[in-house]
Amino acid sequence: MHPHIAKLYQSAKKSHKLIIGLMSGTSLDGLDVALCKVSGQGMQTKIDVLAFDTVDYDDDYKQKIKQVFAKRECDLELVTLLNPWIGKLHGTMVKQCLAKWQVPAEDIDVIASHGQTIYHCPKSQHQHDDFNHGTLQIGDSDHLAVTTGITTIGDFRQKHIAAGGEGAPLAVYGDYLFFTSHQENRILLNMGGIANLTFLPKSADTNAVFSSDIGPGNTIMDAYVQTHFAPLHYDKDSLIAKQGVINTSLLEVLCNDAFFDLAFPKTTGPEVFNLAYLTNAQAISNTLDISHYDVMATLNRFSALMIAKAINQCSEQLFDIAVYASGGGIHNPLLMEHILSLCPPLSEVKNTQALGIDPDAKEAVLFAILANECLAGGQSRFGNAEQGIPYVTMGKISFAD
Ligand SMILES: Nc1ncnc2c1ncn2[C@@H]1O[C@H](COP(=O)(O)OP(=O)(O)OP(=O)(O)O)[C@@H](O)[C@H]1O
Ligand SMILES: CC(=O)N[C@H]1[C@@H]2OC[C@@H](O2)[C@@H](O)[C@@H]1O[C@H](C)C(=O)O
């Protein structure tokens, strides 16, 4: 047996493993690195997040990625070069974290790497009859494995599509295994660049579980701030949006997109919800000349309205439902205020810290759970193909040499 396979076999049998989960999301703010102690598998999965850091991307990284990110046309040579470059960079960032945490690389069983999405196109969003869903994450795992000396499991989304899913959201797999409660119905809400949710009934009935993207979380607000309030990268503490007034004509047009009429589950990305989407809505609503502050106030309300609509759709006729939020949007006080006021059955929106997971680390932890399932799962088959959750083992394995 190849020593790498033997080592992996030993890892798979351990009572607990050390897995580093990595997420680099659509906000392009940094690489989330979560050191997780994982035991069990399936519904018995237990996680302790031993350490967490977001390693910020510098302007050089952001500028390079933005040349290809969510763009229908771009320099294919640059894409080809970025794929190994990001893999190596993510590997270097993991090594920095390990040094800071004083954890030897040999102690880590595997890295679980999401990579960097550069284009996401479910069938609902492209015009090619000949093609099904597609999604592309770069930052190849071989480069992470060689850079860190740690076996790396990556490229999780392709299997989901191969088995009939749309490639996202994948959160439902980790959410169901880790956050299901028999005491309360739960919604796990993540607000990154794009917002998504998972509905977890207390019956744990897999036929009733579902997960879906909702629409924009921070992505259009971030893009607008970066354009009109540079060098700011986002509307910290909603300071900009709070100075504006919601423009109802613009808001109405923003909310009027075919995506919002699609049934759950559905997926989207900054390929649709971007500055061009906003400009088009401003042109239709004749609001191209309103102040930047009013635009930000309106965008904030727009994200909140669509998120609240999705929560209300899930919680219809349910009195005992709790919402646990995660992702950078929880730090946007105006957004949180709007969501709460638009969801009358809720007295509060909690965050996943109440369930033991740092809300900023949640997506990185998700990939650690998926890697754990790849190594040690497979005993119970969680899935519901009709809800876009095919039963699959996700991830491809890269060895260090
Ligand atoms: N203090 C704050 N005030 C307002 N917004 C904030 C604050 N902190 C973070 N954010 C928002 O959160 C965003 C980052 O969120 P997060 O890291 O969850 O996104 P992501 O993981 O890249 O996205 P996705 O989940 O869509 O892939 C920032 O770009 C910003 O818009
Ligand atoms: C294609 C892609 O990278 N999608 C991300 C993005 O960020 C949020 C939302 O859009 C979600 O669909 C997904 O990530 C999370 C981790 C998911 O798959 O659940």
UniProtKB/TrEMBL annotation:
For whether the record's keyword set contains Nucleotide-binding, the answer is yes
Keyword terms, alphabetized: ATP-binding, Carbohydrate metabolism, Kinase, Nucleotide-binding, Transferase
Q: Spell out the InterPro entries in the cross-references.
A: Anhydro_N_Ac-Mur_kinase, ATPase_NBD
Q: Which domain of life is it from?
A: Bacteria
As recorded in UniProt, its EC number(s) are: 2.7.1.170
Q: Which residues form a coiled coil?
A: none
Where do the annotations place ATP binding?
G25, T26, S27, L28, D29, G30, L31, D32
- Its pathway? Cell wall biogenesis; peptidoglycan recycling; Amino-sugar metabolism; 1,6-anhydro-N-acetylmuramate degradation
Q: Name one GO molecular function term.
A: kinase activity
Entry keyword annotation includes Zinc: no
Q: Which reaction does it catalyse?
A: 1,6-anhydro-N-acetyl-beta-muramate + ATP + H2O = N-acetyl-D-muramate 6-phosphate + ADP + H(+)
Q: What is known about what this protein does?
A: Catalyzes the specific phosphorylation of 1,6-anhydro-N-acetylmuramic acid (anhMurNAc) with the simultaneous cleavage of the 1,6-anhydro ring, generating MurNAc-6-P. Is required for the utilization of anhMurNAc either imported from the medium or derived from its own cell wall murein, and thus plays a role in cell wall recycling.
User: To which protein family does this belong?
Assistant: Belongs to the anhydro-N-acetylmuramic acid kinase family.
Name of the protein in its database record: Anhydro-N-acetylmuramic acid kinase
The protein's gene is named anmK
